[in-house]
Structure formats: C-alpha cells, structure tokens
Amino acid sequence: MYYQTIYLSPLGVITLACDGDGSHLVGLWTEGQKYHGNTIPEAMVEKNDIPLFATAKKWLDRYFAGEKPGISELPLAPIGGEFRQGVWNILREIPYGEVITYGGIAKKMAVKMGKQSMSSQAVGGAVGHNPISIIVPCHRVVGSNGSLTGFAGGVPMKIKLLELEGVDMSRLFVPKKGTAL
Questions:
Q1: Rounded Cα distance, 6 and 10, in Å
Q2: CA angle at 79 for the pair 75 and 80, rounded to the nearest 5°
C-alpha cells in the first residue's frame, strides 16, 4: 500500500507519496507533471496524518522560503531500475543553486558503470522520470549549451525553481521547439 497527501506550494499543488509503513518518501509530483505517480505500482490512498508527510511539508516550507534544507534530512526511496537509481543519486549530489548538464551526468554514469561513454539522451530519460522532483533536484539539469529543457513539471516551473535558488540565469535560455539536449 502507498499513501498520498497534498501540499499547497507557492508554485501550485504538490502530491507527496510514501510507502505503506510511512517510513520513506517515494514520490513528489507537481500538478500536471508528466509521469505523475507512474512509478507507484498500485493505487495510492489519501492519508494526511503520517509523520513523514509533516516532515516533508516542513522541508518544502523551508525550501520555498529560500532556505537550503538538505536532501539527507528526508528518507527517500524512489522506485526505479538500477540505471535510473544511479542517475537519481547523481541528482542528489548537485549543490543547491548550481546546475549540471545532461552530458556531465552521462560522464559520471559512464564512470560508475565502467563504460567509455554514456548517452545524454538515456540520462535525460532517467532525469525526466525522477519520481521525487524538487527534493531530488532534476530541475538543476540543463543542456550542454545552457538550454532549459527536460523538466517534467515544465520549463516555466524549472525557471522559477532555479530563480528561487539564486542560479545565475544569464547563460541559460529556453530553446526553440525541437532543440536537442
């Protein structure tokens, strides 16, 4: 069984999900986000009184207030295969207020997997399917040329999150439709 609750953020409604014993956060999706809830293998039941949800909401309150809460403050258990888990672990390492490219993650994954190289597109797919957005900061990933692409919550939300974190936006841009990573 999986449980869910709603958090009203400055950017809109956020759904939080946890495992059946309420010990690990398994999902955080913004309203209208691509792949909303797709990693959860069964229907989620609304339950608002789980202590982990209160802790996660306080974390989000601090984040949206401009503080820098640590990812390690929350017990996370995103559901996904080995490759995606590897990419999501790299996302957790991106410092607050900084960005990394898809290619940069691909290089790190290639090293982890003992390969010469790794496809940026494969990394982009894993980043896009991150089931705990904002907390696992997939919004901090940009194209090698500074393009703001690939955020399942949409580019406008990605921009708002990066601006909230004080990222220097001067070299970043919204690509024209059809531009690659």
A1: 13
A2: 135
Q: What is the pLDDT of residues 113-146, one digit of tens each?
A: 999 999 999 999 999 999 999 999 999 999 999 9
- Total residues found in the chain within this entry: 181
Query: What does the pLDDT look like over 63-76, one tens digit per residue?
Result: 999 999 999 999 99
Question: pTM here?
Answer: 0.92
Return d(Cα 124, Cα 121) in angstroms, integer.
5
Contact between 136 and 78 (Cβ < 8 Å)? yes
- Residue 28 near residue 17, CB atoms below 8 Å: yes
Residues involved in catalysis: 138
Whole-angstrom CA distances from 85 to 11, 17, 76, 112 are: 27, 18, 11, 12
Which H or E element spans position 164?
helix 155-164
Classify residue 42 by its DSSP letter: S
CA torsion through residues 108, 103, 121, 126, sign: positive
**DSSP code string of 129-140:** T-SBTTTS-GGG
Structure tokens at 124: 């982009």
